[in-house]
Design goal:
The chain is α/β, with parallel strands linked by helices. It has five helices and five strands; from the N terminus they run H-H-H-E-H-E-H-E-E-E. The chain has a five-stranded mixed beta sheet, covered by helices on one side.
């Protein structure tokens, strides 16, 4: 069997090495990052660092509102979520859940769990259906009544650079989250605040 000539094997080796280098360069990599550190925004769209900023600012505002000075007891709140009026699929439940968690941990507000009401009623019905001894049944009519509703709206405005000769494609996105606390008895908006985030991104026309 004849050996391959040097003139043929050299280009073959170069091709193999080049292919290996390209394969290595295209391999996916993963690393852990600290969620408390400022991270790079890959584009202008909403990301988890925006959620952290929104939660921090609104929580601080709620903890420092004059509402606390007017109350003789810790306000009892029920959350009705944050409506998403943006064009993106954003899970705003994570925002309201994190605000609730921060306020509970601060010990200044009390919350009733609206999402578990049906489950609580189902469990009460089960206990009073004869499956639980009378001395172990819950006492009905003892649930907390909320004083305030906490709810809000997330909106966005997106602007793309007009079509023209350029090397980079620019995009500007503006987010606004308004949160308010409504007195259930009077209907008065007892507290309201907002967080605004604006970001511009540039993307090369040619790239991968």
């Amino acid at each position: 069997m004849k050996l391959l000539s040097t003139s043929f094997t050299r280009p073959l080796k170069v091709a193999i090495i080049t292919a290996a280098a390209l394969a290595t360069g295209c391999a996916a990599t993963t690393k852990s990052i600290d969620p408390n550190e400022e991270t790079v925004h890959y584009d202008a769209n909403y990301d988890f660092s925006d959620k952290k900023e929104i939660v921090a600012k609104l929580t601080d505002s709620l903890l420092n509102t004059t509402l606390m000075g007017r109350e003789t007891a810790k306000p009892i709140i029920v959350t009705y979520g944050i409506a998403n009026e943006t064009a993106e699929h954003i899970n705003t439940g994570g925002i309201s859940d994190d605000i609730r968690l921060a306020l509970i941990q601060a010990g200044e507000y009390r919350f009733v769990n609206r999402k578990q009401r049906d489950n609580a009623l189902s469990e009460a019905d089960f206990q009073y259906a004869g499956f639980v001894p009378p001395e172990q049944r819950i006492v009905e009519g003892q649930q907390l009544g909320a004083n305030y509703i906490l709810a809000g709206t997330l909106r966005s405005i997106e602007k793309n650079q007009p079509r023209q000769w350029r090397l980079n494609k620019r995009k500007l996105v503006y987010y606004s989250l308004n949160l308010e606390m409504t007195n259930i008895q009077t209907g008065e908006v007892s507290w309201a605040d907002a967080v605004e985030i604006a970001r511009e991104s540039k993307q090369p026309i040619i790239g991968w």
